[in-house]
Amino acid sequence: MFLVLLISLVNFVGDIMGHPTTVTDTSSENEVHTYNFPFVTRSEWHARKPKMTLPLHTPVPYVVIHHSYTPPACRSIEECENAMRVMQSMHMDGRGWWDIGYNFAVGSEGSAYEGRGWSTLGAHALHFNSVSIGICLIGDWRNELPPEDQLKTAKALIAAGVDLGYISPTYKLLGHRQVRDTECPGDALYKEIQGWAHYSPYPGSATDLLNLPEIPEKVKDVMRGNSTYDD
Ligand SMILES: [Zn+2]
């Protein structure tokens, strides 16, 4: 409650001071929701400002599950906030992206961490970002499963996305490897999510994306090598 009041106050002061509304303002701090699991906002983990943002058209028809591989599993809020900053730096400085790639991440202590959020286009699954929310379960889940709290929060986050209208009620759940040549989200976690509600075995490979009606023609042209993402 205090957080809601504080954010309202900050926004109100911003308004009366006549600050221009920037695109980044719409992506995170202005969206205040109450969740039934611990949720850590960008400002709480001291995220850097995105270099740029584009809107994500919601509700999205897909949810893509990832693991971080590195950084390894984090088991306290402090460790997980640090992991978020490490991933954001890897993505912004190492890969030259605008921000941390994922829409959200989940730590082994059972908190969800705001990445790009519900309404901002992510950079987590090539050619698939415009139709999906990407959730990273922080850790290396090739050989072992995330702890129960981490799995539970990931599922609750998806359910919240449906309730809030950001994820289609008929969404399909995928592992990253189904849309890209990668081992992500790790063998153990991939096996686990195949038992979750809404898991879909199709698409099963990156080439299937060309047959998905949800993917914009513009993106398919890039996949066919006829165009680039330069607009
Ligand atoms: Zn991935």
From TrEMBL:
One of its GO terms (molecular function) is N-acetylmuramoyl-L-alanine amidase activity. GO terms for biological process: innate immune response; peptidoglycan catabolic process. Coiled coil: none annotated. Residues 49-186 form the N-acetylmuramoyl-L-alanine amidase domain. Residues 37-180 form the Peptidoglycan recognition protein family domain. The keyword Signal applies. Keywords: Immunity, Innate immunity, Signal. It holds the Pfam family Amidase_2. Gene3D superfamilies: Peptidoglycan recognition protein-like. Residues 1-18 form the signal peptide. PANTHER family: PEPTIDOGLYCAN RECOGNITION PROTEIN (PTHR11022), PEPTIDOGLYCAN-RECOGNITION PROTEIN LB (PTHR11022:SF77). Belongs to the N-acetylmuramoyl-L-alanine amidase 2 family. Monomer. This is Peptidoglycan recognition protein. It comes from Ostrinia nubilalis (European corn borer).
